[in-house]
Amino acid sequence: MNCTLCGSALAVIKFTLKDDHQVVHCPVCGVEFLSPQLDDIALDKLYAESYYAAWGIKGDAENETTRQMKKATFQLRLNTIRRFLAGPAPGASSEAKILDVGCATGYFLEVAQKEGFDPYGIEFSEYSAGIAKKKFGEGKIFKGTLEQLSLARQPGPADRPDFVDHPGFAKLSFQVIAMSDLIEHVRVPAETLTRAAALLTDGGVIMIMTPDTGTLSNKVMGRRWTHYKPEHFFYFNRRSMNWLAEKCGLQVAYYERSRKALNIDYLHTQLNVYRHWLLTPLISTLHRLLPAKMTALNFYFSIGEMVVILKRSI
After folding, report:
1. Under 8 Å between Cβ of 303 and 279
2. Rounded to whole angstroms, how far apart are CA atoms 26 and 244?
3. pLDDT tens across 295-314, in order?
4. Is the peptide bond before 36 cis (omega within 30 degrees of 0)?
5. Prediction pTM value
6. Ordered structural domains, the chain, with CATH
7. 54 and which of 81, 157, 273, 295 could share a cystine (Cβ 3.0–4.6 Å)?
């Protein structure tokens, strides 16, 4: 099987998951990818309102515990981003625009806006895009994919089948493009990242947070690794992320094992949707025994993910 990242013919099946999807490993670039990928109909169904039940969200009512937890994580990401920015400081110029690709309900953008950035988002899910639009306005949230946004930026007749009219994003460039828990979901990561790079201002950065197969949790848990899901099409490590960046005319300026803010309430909800033979009963027991004040308390933990900062190659 040919590697979908580097093209090597040496890719081999690593193992088959319980849903009959195969995880394929490339020994040349180090990437892993899922075969076969879910089709568009399955994805539309997956990313409906029910997908956010694992966040404790239903209808228009957000879960405040989840919201504060995720905003705490995104504050960490934004602190890292700031270290690598060049050009105008957020709030000092209209050029300090930030784009969150896969913005979900807009938690990262809430943090960025508070820090002085002009927030924009792209979201595939109609449900979560609708929530984000209520926060930031119709012209700030693009319902679709980055690839569709690229088409929207090109001139063409409104009746062209692939033309998407979204004037809020016309001819914009961004100082920061964030992809938190996004790149593993896309069908062709190199295409997505190349299109993102084309939207950067001079000195701009791309931040990616994604599962990392180089972590101890992956080695220990094997096929039971919690990041192996049917909607995750690609799995990177430090080596394969370097391959991806170089292929897209970018370079990795920074790498770290990421930490996330978590709490028992959130883990209890997550693990009752994505059940795990060991973690689900363990967290359920803690959730039952601990007082509510403690189950809502955030702690910071690495769950097998990486954060990278990308810049254009010189």
Report:
1. no
2. 13
3. 999 999 999 999 999 999 87
4. yes
5. 0.91
6. 62-260+307-312 (3.40.50.150), 264-297 (no CATH)
7. 273
